[in-house]
Amino acid sequence: MRIIIQRVKKASVTVSEKIVSEIGQGYLILLGIEDADTQEDINWLCGKVARLRIFADEQGAMNRSIRDIDGDVIVVSQFTLHASTKKGNRPSFIKAARPDKAIPMYEDFVRNLEVELEKKVQTGIFGAMMDVALVNDGPVTIAIDSKNKE
């Protein structure tokens, strides 16, 4: 399971010209799920997201978590995070989980993150063509892969 966390001043997701999610300060998380992912990957990543300290404290050091600042979160499914570009010029998405596995895992990730953060998490619409808008704060963008825990 791979995520891209973008620290944002604001972010939104629009589908068919309608805003479906919108937040102020917090995280825009792109979530890629592969066939090998399990509940353990979800649990580990959600804990990591909740504890990650990438917001500034009074001295300007990255020392505060999303919980510390009471920030908001949008999670967007992003199967292209598992693109393989080793051969040719057209990416292969063979490692990306199919919807029958990915949708329940995406929903579990969101629910688990809501428990960790003790608040509602916004989402995109799985499988939809989405326009994702953000103002990256910093910019700060961090990639985390649950297969690289150690």
Automatic annotation (TrEMBL):
Matching CDD domains: Dtyr_deacylase
Enzyme Commission number(s) of this protein: 3.1.1.96, 3.1.1.-
Motif (Gly-cisPro motif, important for rejection of L-amino acids): 138-139
Main location: cytoplasm
Enzyme class: hydrolase
Catalytic activity from the UniProt record: a D-aminoacyl-tRNA + H2O = a tRNA + a D-alpha-amino acid + H(+); glycyl-tRNA(Ala) + H2O = tRNA(Ala) + glycine + H(+)
S-adenosyl-L-methionine among keywords: no
UniProt keyword annotations, A-Z: Cytoplasm, Hydrolase, RNA-binding, tRNA-binding
A GO biological process held by the record: D-amino acid catabolic process
Record localization: Cytoplasm
A GO molecular-function descriptor: D-tyrosyl-tRNA(Tyr) deacylase activity
One GO cellular component term: cytoplasm
Stretches assigned to coiled coil: none
HAMAP family in the record: Deacylase_Dtd
Domain notes: A Gly-cisPro motif from one monomer fits into the active site of the other monomer to allow specific chiral rejection of L-amino acids.
Task of the protein: An aminoacyl-tRNA editing enzyme that deacylates mischarged D-aminoacyl-tRNAs. Also deacylates mischarged glycyl-tRNA(Ala), protecting cells against glycine mischarging by AlaRS. Acts via tRNA-based rather than protein-based catalysis; rejects L-amino acids rather than detecting D-amino acids in the active site. By recycling D-aminoacyl-tRNA to D-amino acids and free tRNA molecules, this enzyme counteracts the toxicity associated with the formation of D-aminoacyl-tRNA entities in vivo and helps enforce protein L-homochirality.
Family the UniProt entry places it in: Belongs to the DTD family.
Oligomer status and interactors: Homodimer.
Protein name (database record): D-aminoacyl-tRNA deacylase
Organism for this UniProt entry: Marinirhabdus gelatinilytica
